[in-house]
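Extended Data, panel c. Modelled sequence:
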Amino acid sequence: MSTLNLYEMYRELAIAGEDVHQELNFGVLLEPKLRKLFYETYNEVPEQYSKLFHVNTSKKAKETDYGLGAMSPWTEFGSSTTAVSGSNPMPTIQYQTIDAGLERTYVHKEFASGFMVERKFADDEMYNVIEKMPKDLARAGRYKVETDAISLFNNAFDSTKAIYDGKALIAADHPLLSGGTASNLVSGALSDTTLKQAIILSQNQKDEAGKLIQMHFDTLVVPPALQFLAEELMKSPYKTGSNVNDINALKDEMKIVVNPFLTDSDAWFIMDSKRHQLNFFWRVKPEFKREEDFDTLVAKYRGYMRYSFGCSDFRGIIGSPGVE
């Protein structure tokens, strides 16, 4: 029996003089059905942000990552047999100190919205309008999560949207604690040539001491406008744009993630799906609750969630703004 029909049953019992508990208001009767519609709709399509972020749960008001420097390469120890008192001192281990790093703080923000239903509107419901309200509320919440998370990519080249080191997420001059800079930026539209440039750059990523990091970039992230080009680059047996039957050295090199929330139609990215440091923290996952005002006979339904997202390390992602 549907919730609305259940309400009609209680109303008829009241008219007939049957005892109906006063605690049973129409808001309670509507709640189970609307709650089910909310959660079913929220989960009706696969998540997109979780394909690009490490998704975690948090039990604190904020989460903090702290990045330290890195060790320099080992030095030669020498030999104690060559030491001569007064001229060649006995060799000793050279102990290193690690440079202090920068904090990466994730502060969870609250998000909420809702709708109200009047008693008479529920009594006279004929067009399933009430059913549409939690569905739309759920979709709006889902949209907020997706657009917030992907904003890290949409703002990746914007220096005014700096990450922890004062640079854009994708930049040619990320400062290293040991001095010098490192780049995770390539230029140009997605092509066989620029994608190979990005892969070469991925093999030259450096830690804070300037040592090469062995990373495996296995994911190509593109907007819908580049989906078919990406598939040609990754799946064609022969090199795209060539008529001499050159083999496609990029074939099956990476999996493709097409994100419909990317706003730049020609920006693209590659990622190491295991070692990147793009993080999303759920403090409170989406919830749906209600209450009814005794005097106005208006039932209020609301959704609430709390989360944060960001970047703890620029390494693990390389990008191009496409044609500038």
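The CA atoms of residues 64 and 226 lie 35 Å apart. This feature is highlighted in the accompanying rendering.
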